[in-house]
Amino acid sequence: MRHPLLSAIVLALGLVLLGAHAAPVGAAPATDPADLGPPRGTPIEEAMLAPPAVPPPIHRDYPARVIVRLETREVVKEIADGVRYDFWTFNGSVPGPMIRVRQGDTVELHLKNAADSHMAHNIDLHAVMGPGGGAALSMTPPGHESVFTFKAMREGLYIYHCATPPVPMHIANGMYGLILVEPPQGLPKADREYYVVQGDFYTTGAYHVPGLQTFDMQKLLLEQPTYVLFNGREGSLTGANALTAKVGDTVRLFVGDGGPNLVSSFHVIGQIFDSVNVEGGTLINHNVQTTLIPAGGAVTVEMKTLVPGTFLLVDHSITRAFMQGALGQLVVSGPAAPAIYNKVSSGPIPTAANRSRRLPRRLQPRRSMTPWPTARAYSRRSAPPAIRATAWACRARSRRWRCRITSTPIRRVPSASCSTGSAARSPSTTPATSR
Ligand SMILES: [Cu+2]
């Protein structure tokens, strides 16, 4: 694929596939009631932020020209602890920066392809109404730049991705992101906004095999990913990278599914979505537990954080969450709300049989309060940092119990980390459990 002649043939084939059609001669331009007229004012440079950051809300009441600058870069970085992968990216991150414009804006998109790239790249934005979504207009060899414009005609949340053949390979290597087209009146205020995109990755080595891993075409064809991830790296949204909020916040998540293959059953354990913009469009559903995100699609979900603690973001095709990496955390801090969520008690059921016999040691309640049945497994290096921390804290607590007998408690371990009271749990180290 790196031979120049072969690259040129693939490029030409791609242009044909992507529909580089000429406009019909003599036809009157189409008009549309959603067209809010030509751009006004000074052109605006779009903020290009790395995920999970979201560009600020738009308060304009007129259409503008918005300049978006993207660069396709091929970068080797970690996909999991100790595992490196040759990602193909927009602006070096997976997903690429989120783009935020207002309906009616004219987007002037500059797509550079870094000089040290091995491949041509382009961009297909699902917010574009035009053949190929911009792909044919933006096919860019290494060391070149393409510029094209499109008008954001329809509000919604849309995926963008590279559409250079072989398209699945470019997407599987991380070339996708989201573009939000706000309605003319803007979005309601939210206290927190975050940007998350799920993707499936296909490496030659099995899950967590260390070292530099290469792309596995056979796994791609079989749709059997090695990793299913939020924001391109296991741990990108856990531990020190967790999303945060305070009790009482309205949290808005812009969630996409870059694919290339898997559909996401997006769920936040312990939360209910107050509203979901179904498939990223204008249909709003309420009180949703799990929302489907098609490959190449997106949703906006909003939820109110009523209770403190750690809430897990998962693909509820749950093997992907706990065995392939599709796991994030929303850590909510603030006062406990026992009227909404409270632990009352736990222990052996007081039956006559239980009262008359002492349980064998292996059946007695364990002092460790980790809710994971495989806590030992989560204490390994493979576990996401926060879960690992929980397992560690609970193991340490066991030592603390022993140490307490000898009056030498381990001070580094806050007792709240393993407290039996839900209200006293440390939000940063206590994972929620699925019900
Ligand atoms: Cu590409």
From TrEMBL:
At the top of the EC hierarchy, this enzyme's class is: oxidoreductase
Q: Does this UniProt record's set of keywords contain Cell inner membrane? A: no
Note the Pfam families from the entry: Cu-oxidase_3 (PF07732)
> What are the required cofactors?
Cu(+)
Q: What are the protein's UniProt keywords?
A: Copper, Metal-binding, Oxidoreductase, Repeat
Plastocyanin-like domain sequence ranges: 79-185
Q: What Enzyme Commission number(s) does the record list for this chain? A: 1.7.2.1
Annotated region (Disordered) at: 412-435
The entry lists its GO molecular-function terms as:
copper ion binding; nitrite reductase (NO-forming) activity
- What residue ranges carry the coiled-coil annotation? none
Q: Which reaction does it catalyse?
A: nitric oxide + Fe(III)-[cytochrome c] + H2O = Fe(II)-[cytochrome c] + nitrite + 2 H(+)
In what ranges is there compositional bias, type Polar residues? 416-435
NCBIfam families in alphabetical order: Cu_nitrite_red
Subunit-structure text = Homotrimer.
Q: Can you say what this protein is called? A: Copper-containing nitrite reductase
The protein's organism comes out as mine drainage metagenome
